[in-house]
Fold this protein.
Amino acid sequence: MKISFLLHNAYGIGGTIATTFNLAQALAERHEVEIISVLRHREDPNFTLDPRVGLRPLVDLRQEKEHPLHLRPAKVFPRAEYRYGQYSELTDQRIGECLATVDADVVIGTRPGLNVHLALQAPSHVGRIGQEHLTLDNHPPRLRNALRRAYRRLDVLTTVTEADAASYRLKMRLPGVRVEALPNSVPDPVLRAADGTAKVVVAAGRLVPVKRYDLLIQAFALVAAEHPDWQLRIYGKGEEHDRLRRLITDLGLWNNVFLMGAAAPMEAEWVKGSIGAAASNFEPFGMTIVEAMRCGLPVVSTDCPYGPGEIIQDGADGRLVPVGDRDALGAALLELVGDDERRRRMGRAAMENARRFAPGPVVEQAERLLDEAVSARRTGRAAAREGTGARRALVSQGFAVRDAAVGAAGGALRMVRKGQQ
């Protein structure tokens, strides 16, 4: 089977990029796999990519940032999507051309706006799988309305948690579309697991407000007051860096809390610690939580929507505390810092329980969904949903549809904005 992933920017840093690379590399063991990166801004990706996985960009911002079409707003990519400002008529054109000529059996979209492109523009014989790495309830109403119309033309929609899958089934009314949770996978560790002796708490991720590293630093001040020989190491980069640096200084934690910068891969840094930590207000999945657990670290996390509660078994392989509660977060960290045996026992449990996020189980589930998408197209079950349904979806998006392009056996749909025929 040939599988293509449609990704925003394979050359950046983020959880969606990491999990796409992980899944693509695991699938490449038995399939022909490529990643199509809509944008490119540097020569090489930040993450290492298996040479068996193809990588091709559509718009190279190093040469095309001032392209006349890139200076015009996108017309297909939904305006309410979070990345809308980075898309343009040029990306619309390149994505449309790419999908019209793609020779894959299945194309997998990896964010809402790209799923819309996939749903509206892929040829009728190509299986269509949309991935949601955020959550339905976090999408603004205008985006949910756009997705409700377009997603009916997907074959499969995956979320990263069971809670979000249930939300899509209940609220989106997607007849004929299989909605299923497919968790992110983390590669099997290659280094010896942490042994729980290092006096180090490790956190990792983008330094942005929602991750609440300020809360984590404040909570760790409670730890440092009782155990001044312990450290908190925070890996990542982002807009909060300078504010967090000032907070560390204001709390007098310059000997205990360190902003380590970005590290990829993180495995070598996780195994240097004994406890993982996450303080987010919102976490669609929790990739770093799984990474830490697979390296033998129990994780103390806020019990925020949606991911941590589906990953951590409170009291068994980590701790869950209320969102925004500095004292509860500090107390949970102190529990593990002050009890060597409990910390090591929970670390062993974390490593064992996180095996369900290994590539093997996740790829097995992904292959089943891929087979279903291909089967739906080959038997005509999915194509039968096109026709007038396709017309309605496109017209509701603000397009006029050429009659010759619509139909179950048609190729990629040809679309123009109303008033621009």
